[in-house]
Amino acid sequence: MTASPTATADTTAAGAPPTAGAPSGPLAAVRRRRRPKDPDAAARGGPVWTLLAWILTLFFFMPVAWMVLTSFHTEADAATNPPSPFASITGANYSLLFDRGVSPFLVNSAFASILSTVLVLVLAVPAAYALSIKPVEKWTDVMFFFLSTKFLPAIAALLPIYLIVKEGGMLDNVWTLVILYTAMNLPIALWMMQSFLAEVPKEILEAAEMDGAGLLRTLWSVVRPVAMPGLAATALICFIFSWNEFMFAVNLTATRASTAPVFLVGFITNEGLFLARLCAAATLLSLPVLLAGWAAQDKLVRGLSLGAVK
Amino acid sequence: MVRRPVLAVAVGAVLVASGCAGAGGGGGDGDSQSINVLMVGNPQMEDIQQLTADSFTKDTGIKVNFTILPENELRDKVTQEVATGAGQYDLATIGAYEAPIWAQNGWLAEFTSYVDKDSAFDKGDLIKPIVDSLTVDGKLMAVPFYGESSFLMYRKDILESKGVTLPERPTWQQVADAAAKVDNAQPGMRGICLRGLPGWGEMFAPLTTVVNTFGGTWFTKDWQAQVNSPQFTEAVQFYVDLVRKHGEAGAAQAGFTECLNAMSQSKVAMWYDATSAAGSLEDPKVSNVAGKIGYAYAPVKETESAGWLWTWAWTMPKTTKHADAAAKFALWASSKEYEKLVGEKLGWARVPSGKRVSTYSLPEYQEVSAAFGDITLKSIEGAKPTDPGTQERPTVGIQYVTIPEFADLGTKVSQEISAVIAGRGTVQAALADGQKLAEEVAKKYQK
Amino acid sequence: MTTTVSTPSGARHREPGAATGRPPARDRWVRRAPLLPALVFLIVVTQVPFLVTLVISSLHWNVLRPGERSFAGLSNYGTVFTDNRLRAAVINTVVLTASVVVVSVLVGLALAVLLDRRFPGRGLARTLLIAPFLVMPVAAALIWKHAIYNPTYGLLNGSLTWVWELFGADSGPSVDWISSMPMTAVVVSLVWQWTPFMMLILLAGLQAQPGDVLEAAKVDGASPLKTFRFITLPHLRQYLELSALLGSIYILQTFDAVFTITQGGPGTATTNLPYEIYLTMFRKYEYGEAAAAGVVVVIGTIVVATFALRVFSSLFREEVGR
Predict the structure, then answer these.
(1) Are A81 and B7 inside 8 Å of each other by CB?
(2) I need a labelling partner for A245 at 20 to 30 A (CA). Which of A169, A262, B134, C167 fits?
(3) How many Å is the Cα radius of gyration of chain B?
(4) Which of B6, B9, B253, B286 to mutate to test the interface with A (most CBs of A within 10 A)?
(5) Position C13 in a domain
């Protein structure tokens, strides 16, 4: 049985180096299950598949690339037929964004997204624990209930929420968005974390229990390293959904708490060209998410892999 | 793991920064020195957002917070805001369609008292039909910011090259014939651009004017629905045929913006749409056809005039706590002083025109609007909202019916007609469905 | 590797004791405790609005006619069930959701398989592939509508023109994508956005395959195709189900793409349920009808989801009890 350590280049060690208190045996066994480096992979029908992979990648990326390119053109150049990818570059659209005061919107978005994500994790992780590692009875029903809260179309829920928020005097308040985004993302976070926590091998938990570790100790030193990448993946996905949320943001905020998506649509006009400005706004406002996504993308894969539904 | 401390720092930084962004939602909302304005994202509104801080706020100390949204989202938000009395905004832009309905619901504060007190505002200077469309029971319920009618724009050079001449007041048949002749005058150029985008204010704005001048109407004075009447059918069939035969590519999704683009890029030779389009077409910075455009009055058939009437106006929900400050801003925004400010700072073509007669006498404005200024003013002055067609109407309005149900009715029928333009279904079937919907609506109003 | 312990269900309600195999009451509450904050929070924030929705659905309430609010009983539900437009909307929603989920799962699977191998620039390729999922959906819909599909200056027709001009023609065909194939146009833009999401989940599944099993298969001389068919695919089944389930929940509620790209048209060809509810709320301003439609959607989704999860899916059969 090959005892080769960690798998392919971009799925690094499952979590962290063996942490104190956690038996290294089971963790190493977890690591061993990952596939070893496969030196033959590159040789197997390599160039054709590689080419295909790259063609598809560029195909998918093309609209994004076009969006970024257009953001540097003038409005007239952005709307020519045939398209003029080599038109002169200008930063005018971006300075327009800052002239229009984009910063407060970005701050509001960051506040709502980060805070709601933190809150989601704080709520979802213990709940997932109670549904996986030491599950309650009827855990499937609970899981289904959580999912069912997403069945009501947001547009239908808008009116009741608007009325409740209005009566509560919480219109145009970022905290309203925080609470709503938390509720919006909680089911998904729960389903994902439930999968990730279920991944924690039983042997380790039993070993820890036999070693006399209490609940908190077990959580910190045994569960956390295995589930941390899954946590990162969940956090990123919740952040993305909160950042991009438009419907509640536009209806429940006014001048103080408006978020980035509301700012973006403000560039659309029925009476003139707006494509270049729109692309600039879209690029700028997608940047935080894009950067976060790219920084975490290998964690995302690793996380989702560790969070395998067995 | 590294992530946790980073996360904590990030959260902390954001919490600190958010104090400045007013994310806490508390803050000075009882402050009489600031008002909230909700407005549509048209170029004229974007200009005022740019100019307010350095002029109005500096002079009066009143800070103005703007929210800008595109037309559909704006209507949704304004209606929800005003109808539920949320009180978040002190001023909002609405159109001539909403003003009378909302005034009758008692949602709006009136402006007559403010306007009368302000002699510099010169309310006599406002163009009469525009004021009439915003006046309910003798009280002005909204202050017009800019107004428009509709007319025909065409490429003088292209028509000349094909030996086509159009009179100043053409008929629709003449226009159709001209479009046929200039279709494909240049490679890739179609004859005419007409809106086909679904929406009561999109396709049905020009289409209703065609219906009016063909002798049709949505409802008679005693609320009989006339959507599948012979005249209405003839008008719609004419419009659909013209667009399908000589109209722009992608007509079923073409609104103002698409046609503006098509016209500026020489993809069409003629265009029937709002008078406000002329400003953009004659601006060499965004248009390749500046100086080449001729203008004619809205084409007619059975009526003398056919142009529509529309205005975006400032209105004050009754729930506002800063009525005086809001009124001050509205009056300033619609003043002669502001028009001059726009002209000097941003260029005379960007002046929000179509509401004051005096605008068209400003020498600087006349210079940039030489080709279209006069015909615009006369189109607006000649619009007859009380009597736009060949029969009496139950409500005041040219290209819409001033009842709350019209937004839904017009949109649904326009969806079907847009489908016909796209090649699905027939005009008869679409209008038969439309008639059913209209009869449902009419039931509520028949005595 | 996995040891399954079936959770005792329907245990006898006797005194808490080791004999029944059911954990004592205190134990049960200790197990439930971590779940409660999330559960309570979610119940408060989602069920209160749902109750309000139920109340509103029993009213005749047109906000543009203030003062005419009245009790309607179940008549709004009657309207909902007899409305042609809503029935068309249901069909469109099903078609839209099914198409997007199926296509994006298949394409995602293909991409995941392709990216499972090592090749130069693989990390970069993966990051580029995630980009569509990260762009704001509102912005993405606008880009597709105006920058790609537009018949006059969109990228598709522009590229066609460029190609045609290469062959000496004056200009390329001017296809009106949105009008001639509206559902396809919306589906393509949604597939573009959601394939990365599917790909990530499936890629994770591929990389979680036990290395020793694959090694053994290789040693036994199994071809890559056989390995894929008999080892990989079964292993992937749960990932496929998870991604399809999560994707469906979100795509069912698609609003931005329909609103921006086709406005539900031509006619009602692409009007889906969320868009139809939007029209009821913001054109007709019939709040009661909109609420009733929302409630009907919830009930319908619960029925379908229960059926799918309990009968087809293996997701809930995973016993993870400890």
Answers:
(1) no
(2) A169
(3) 23
(4) B286
(5) no
pLDDT tens track for C267-287: 788 999 999 999 998 988 899
Q: What range does the domain containing C116 cover? A: 42-312
**Amino acid making up residue B111:** F
CA B405 to chain C, closest CA, distance in angstroms equals: 6
Query: Among 2.40.50.100, 3.40.190.10, 3.40.50.1470, 3.100.10.20, what is the CATH number of B34-147+310-368?
Result: 3.40.190.10
Which residues of chain C make contact with B249, given a CB cutoff of 8 A? 151-152, 174, 176
| Tokens matching residue C117 | 């191998």
3-state secondary structure of B216: coil
What confidence score (pLDDT) does residue C105 get? 95
Would residue C26 count as lying in a domain? no
Domain spans, chain B: 34-147+310-368, 150-307+385-443
Contact B97, B49 (CB under 8 A): no
- Please tell me whether the interface predicted TM-score (ipTM) of this complex is above 0.85: no
* pTM of the predicted protein model: 0.85
What's C148's DSSP letter?
I
Residue A64 gets which letter from DSSP? H
Contact C176 B187 (CB under 8 A): no
Average pLDDT value for residue range B275-295: 88
pLDDT of C1-46, one tens digit each? Answer: 444 444 344 444 444 444 555 667 777 787 788 889 999 999 999 9
- Residue C118 pLDDT > 60, yes or no? yes
Taking the Cβ of residue B2 and every Cβ of chain A, the question of whether any pair is shorter than 8 Å is answered with no
- Under the banding of pLDDT at 50, 70 and 90, the label for residue A36 is very low
The rounded distance, in Å, linking the Cα atoms of B74 and A250 is 10
Written as six digits, the tokens of B292 are 């080449």
Intrachain domains B34-147+310-368 and B150-307+385-443 with the same fold: yes
Averaged pLDDT for residues C200-215: 75
Query: Which of B399, A149, B141, A228 has its CA nearest to residue C51?
Result: A149
Tell me whether residue C37 is in a domain.
no
C35 lies in some domain: no
Number of domains in chain C: 1
pLDDT value at C145 more than 60: yes
**B150-307+385-443 has which CATH code?**
3.40.190.10
Quick one: tokens of C272? Answer: 């889906």
* CA–CA separation, C140 and A67 (whole Å): 9
For residue B251, what are the CA distances in angstroms to B195, B241, C101, C176? 7, 12, 31, 8
Write the CATH number for C71: 1.10.3720.10
CB–CB contact B22 A262 (8 Å) = no
* Cβ atoms within 10 Å, residue A112: 31
State the Cα angle at C90 between C88 and C93, rounded to 5°.
110
Task: Give residue C131's identity as a one-letter amino acid code.
Answer: A
Across the interface, of A156, A164, A202, the residue whose CB is closest to C291 is A156
